[in-house]
Amino acid sequence: MTEQSALSFHNVRQVFSSGGHALCALDGIGFAVAPGRVTGLIGPDGAGKTTLMRLACGLLRPAQGEIRVLGLDAVNEPQAVQSAVGYMPQRFGLYEDLSVQENLDLYADLQGLPKDGRAARYAELMHMTGLAPFTARLAGRLSGGMKQKLGLACALLRAPRLLLLDEPTVGVDPVSRRELWAIVYGQVREQGMSVLLSTAYLDEAERCDDVLLLHQGRLLGQGAPADFSAEVEGRIFQVSASGISHRRLQTRLSQAPGVLDALVEGETVRLVMQAPGEPAAASLLPGLDEVRIRPAAPRFEDAFVARLKTRHDAAAALGALDLHIDARGDEEVIRVRKLLRRFGDFIAVNEVSFSVRRGEIFGLLGANGAGKTTTFRMLCGLLPASGGELSVAGHDLHTARAEARRHIGYMAQKFSLYGDLSVAQNLRFFASAYGLRGRRQDQRVAWAIDTFGLADYRQTNARDLPLGFKQRLSFAAALMHEPEILFLDEPTSGVDPLARREFWARTNALAEAGVTVLVTTHFMEEANYCDRLVIMAEGTVLAEGTPREMKARARSADNPDPTMEDAFIQLIEQREQAGEKGKETAA
Amino acid sequence: MSFFHIRSLARKEFLALMRDKRSRIVIIVPPIIQLFIFGFAATYDLNDVPVAVYNEDSGGASRELLARIEGSPHFSVLHRIGSDAGIAPLIDDRKVLLVVRFSKRFSADMARGDPASLQIVIDGRNSNTAMIALNYLRSVVLDFNRDWQQRHGQTGPPATLEMRAWYNENLQSRWFIVPGIVGSLMLVVTLLVTALSVAREREQGTFDQLLVTPLRPLELLVGKAIPGMVIGLLEATLIIVLMVWFFEVPLRGSLPALYLGILLFLAATVGVGLMISSIAVTQQQAILGAFLFVVPAIILSGFTTPIANMPEVVQWLTQLNPLRYFLVIVRGVTLEGDGFALLFHQFWPMVIIAAATLTMAGWLFRHRMY
Amino acid sequence: MSARLRRLWGMIRKESLQILRDPSSISIAFVMPVVLLLLFGYGVSLDAKRIPLGIVIEQPDTASQSLAGAFDRSEFFRPQRFDAIQTAQVALAERRIDGILWLRNDFSSRLFSGLDAPIGIFVNGVDSNRANITQGYIQGTWLAWLQHFAAAQGRSLDLPVAMEQRVWFNPALNSRLFLVPGLIAIIMTMIGSLLTAMVVAREWERGTMEALMVTPLHMGEMLTGKLIPYFVLGMGGMLLSVAMALFLFGVPLLSPFWLLMACSALFMLVSLAIGLLISIVTRNQFLAGQVALVVSFLPSFLLSGFLFDIHSMPEWVQTITYVVPARYFVAILQTLFLAGPVWPVVLVNAGAMLFMLVVLTALVVKKSYKRLD
């Protein structure tokens, strides 16, 4: 821990008090960020990333410990630190009612950028971020990716020696994410800037020079991403088998001996084994022929899971979801034809069509603002459509009688149960809202508490639950009345990889039991869990099909095994090219 | 409509309101504190009006009248001045409200039987205070005149006024204002409870969660209205007990009629609150909306200034204000001893307001989309 | 331009642009005072006119008719005749009339025989203030009639003591002249605190506060930068209200305009500082709005001396009124409009507001620091 480091923490501890009891947000944190490098602060939501960022720019005073930023003491000279670093908070810190240029002017004034150097710096930044044509536009009217780049430009105005970025890539489409990384590395190369960047996307770890892995307020490790993945070298395999659905395959594998983690990846299942060495097909999947096992290159996420996951039997409990769904046949239960939704002159959903068969997991994939949630709200009857047709189990829920809603379950994007009510009270209320009473209600509440492992939190106010448990509770509440159709809006947003695995295991079990699931997500790799999906951007459907078909389209000589993200980026690029061509022909 | 659904909804509303300590306190403590402060503060009655005396007369008559002024609880003589020049500074600086001036010939005139002139200079900046003080002073002088004429065997004026005030015999301002405070506080509390109920759920996303269940709008409406009604009813009872027991306002009329009035008033207020709440997208809009309703509703209700003094147009507007009717009911039952019959014309407009606003709110639950 | 001034200027420009683009601040500052002042300026009045008065004459003759005629001609009354006292009393109970004038059948005979002729008066005392005013008007009409009656008989009315009253500043005792300035004080208290109550809380909620904090900007610069545009906005609303008072409601302004504006500016600063303090402490727009309403409206309405004489309140309530800024402004406004620049009144009250401003500023500075915890 030398004075040369751009940022150093020494034995830092941070405590928050909430509702009378102290909560340790960070404990015993010590590290140093090397100058001229991009350091990633990686960890799931609630790990303490934002707290750490705020400590680094002197916005919080640690309960204990020492923090030095660019040689300054962040604990005692916060103003000096704040004047020296560049910082982009979550949600980018932009004024949405000011234009791009006005936002830049404000931050230039605040950061004391000399008047005469401004024009050149603005031009440079606008060119770099591709915002030059939009300087007169209000920041609120920019897309998520553009906002993120504007926020970055504001933080970069006077080329700080240390740049702190708090979750800059959250909710942004993959293309914009790639561009952001390019800008950040450009600054590091040209200006010798040091960067600390936090993210919940584990796959972004591999883009960093150096990684700090944070989990539940503790620093689990620091090193190059390759160092982490090296730990699980020889323990990663891809398994495929014929004659079994990949969902059932994953369920079986996750219960197989020696398997730490099983994850659906396209048509195969990715395994993390407890120990190195190729497992035998017979021990993994007894009774199945044509099992192919092939070793795979380890990734950061594998290492993360291997470090945190102790083999648990959640999957076994999940196998028996004990649902009584009266659903037979495979007719289309959700039909959407040329669905349209306008807000003023803005078209949020533009002639979207798709259909979902009974028992399918159907995905709506796209970045924030692509129109997924609006489509969803129309399907659930929360928003009238401006045009087109839709039916859910034969009804338009916006106009149907109340009884029709008994068939659906709905889990909203953000946690939306009653924060002031306890877990048990929430479950009881939703059970009764669906008309369950007496012994039946008791049974269902007991079932939910048991199945979702909520017994320890029965009397806790829903607001005070840990994030993962909030998600479980929402999920349980949506299932109280054993719906035939389940709507899940961004169920895994902000949830750590372990909880996400658990969630998908449950959803798989539901689909196996015959429940139709419509799910939105902006995690591209989660598309693999879906039977079919549509990819949306700017309110329109770019493509529809199975995950395999989607990826097949992106296959090329350079990229023989494309990921879902590659497929998505290719679709976006095709669209943009088409758009430009359209403009040219119009001109 | 299912009773079971409504019961569980209402139960949930109560839990959400009452499990949070801060909202429990907000509902109970401020109204009681306000009742006490405002109950004591808000009165048109004047005590110890500061008076200055400029007495050029040395006779007994002026001293006698002065003693009566000093003896009145309404006045206290703070300054004695010796010249006209002393008047302006005292009044300009608000040291005194009025100056009483006895001319040199005051006692002499009286002895001769000529009218003696008592000159009053009064600060009219607050014309109401000035008018009340003049009224007090006039009755002191009229009493003095009557006694003087009796003692000196003179005949009084050929016709005299026998004035009697009904219902509030001593014309105590507090008897008028405190029932008004009761109504205003009920309005504020009920509106705060209900105006936020839908807006908060919308903002937190729980309203969507409710709308995807088979609950009907009517059930939602009743479930949401019950907590406001029950809290309002309990609060009203508490405030009325304090009003009668602590502020000693009489309760002469029919208690059932008062409670019918309370129920209808609460229904109308809850309706307005839920309507505001359903129109608002955010809690902030809801609170602004509640405010924009509460301020005119209180000021233009007849709480402090009579509706009869307002221009026709404004009087017409006040017909939309449930507080206007409720204040007549509270004052009617407490002071005037009214029963159902005399209050009938106050009941039915509130029924109409409640019906209209509740219907609107119920319709907006599903149709207000953003 | 120094770096400090440039930062301040940057904040002011940003805040002004936001105000211009957000219709709600403009409407709070300009539409609200106009609407409220119109509504209340006309709606709030203590001048009883055309009071419905029941007149019962049991034995109509010239004397009783001339007395009733005096009430018919008065602008304060709207008399209605009743045949019998019983029906009039029913009307009084049903709130159709506010008072009764009752001349019994021996009225004229007693009047001319020199016996005391009683005139029965009943008023509805529920609204004691209105009842008092009604009684005052009845007394006035009665005295005038007595004089008229005596003159008709070739005598003069001999009263031992006759009151000669001179009302300064508002000779016609027109209540609007003092209510309108008071309403300006109340409306401006609400608007001032509402305007700023939201602004700092909004930065917290939208996450922009963090970005502002990690710049060389000092807290003092940020607060000043926020205060100045809202001050200009608030003073705009104030000017509008004063213009309405002068030209619409005809309130005379007997002091120099600059003095009125100086005092208004001071008061506006106090209101804005209250809003700012609320905003900083709550950090939440919704809570800030709620608190701003609770501390601004009812206290300034009931405890400012605008309607109810502070001097007549119990001691402990009077003590509470010292923390209500509207109290000082109401006193200043009523004096400046109606009485002229009375320096002792202006200086004492302005001094009190200045003191409040200093205390509030100290609290704002103490409560605002560049940390999130």
Q: What is the CATH class of the largest domain in chain A? A: Alpha Beta
Rg from alpha-carbon coordinates of chain A: 25 Å
Number of domains of chain A: 3
Give the low-confidence spans of chain B.
none
- Described by the principal axes of the CA atoms, the overall outline of chain B is elongated
Q: How are the strands of the largest sheet of chain A arranged?
A: 6-7-8-3-9-10
Q: What composes the largest sheet of chain A? A: 6 strands, mixed
The secondary-structure class of chain A comes to alpha/beta
Order of helices and strands of chain B: HHEHEHEHEHEHHHHHHHH
Characterization of this structure:
- The complex is a heterotrimer of chains A (587), B (370) and C (373).
- Chain A is α/β, with parallel strands linked by helices.
- Chain A folds into 3 domains: 7-225, 3-Layer(aba) Sandwich (Rossmann fold), CATH 3.40.50; 231-317, 2-Layer Sandwich (Alpha-Beta Plaits), CATH 3.30.70; 359-371 and 403-545, 3-Layer(aba) Sandwich (Rossmann fold).
- Helices cover 34% and strands 25% of the residues of chain A.
- Chain A contains 18 helices and 23 strands.
- In chain A, the strands form 5 sheets. In chain A, strands 6-7-8-3-9-10 form a 6-stranded mixed sheet, with helices on both faces. Chain A has a 6-stranded mixed sheet with strand order 19-20-21-17-22-23, with helices on both faces.
- The longest helix of chain A has 23 residues, at 564-586.
- Chain A is globular, with a radius of gyration of 25 Å.
- By secondary structure, chain B is α/β, with parallel strands linked by helices.
- Helix content of chain B is 66%, strand content 9%.
- In chain B, helix 3 (60-71) links the parallel strand 1 (49-55) and strand 2.
- The two termini of chain B are 27 Å apart.
- By secondary structure, chain C is of the alpha/beta class.
- Chain C contains 14 helices and 5 strands.
- Chain C has helices spanning 3-21, 23-43, 62-73, 85-93, 107-112, 128-152, 175-206, 208-213, 219-248, 257-282, 285-303, 315-321, 325-338, 343-367, and strands spanning 51-57, 77-82, 99-103, 117-124, 161-168.
- Chain C has a 4-stranded mixed sheet with strand order 2-1-3-4, with helices on both faces.
- In chain C, helix 2 (23-43) packs antiparallel against helix 7, helix 7 (175-206) packs parallel to helix 10 and helix 7 packs antiparallel against helix 11.
- Chain C is elongated and about 95 Å long.
- The interface between A and B is medium-sized, with 37 and 25 residues.
- Strand 5 of chain B pairs parallel with strand 4 (117-124) of chain C.
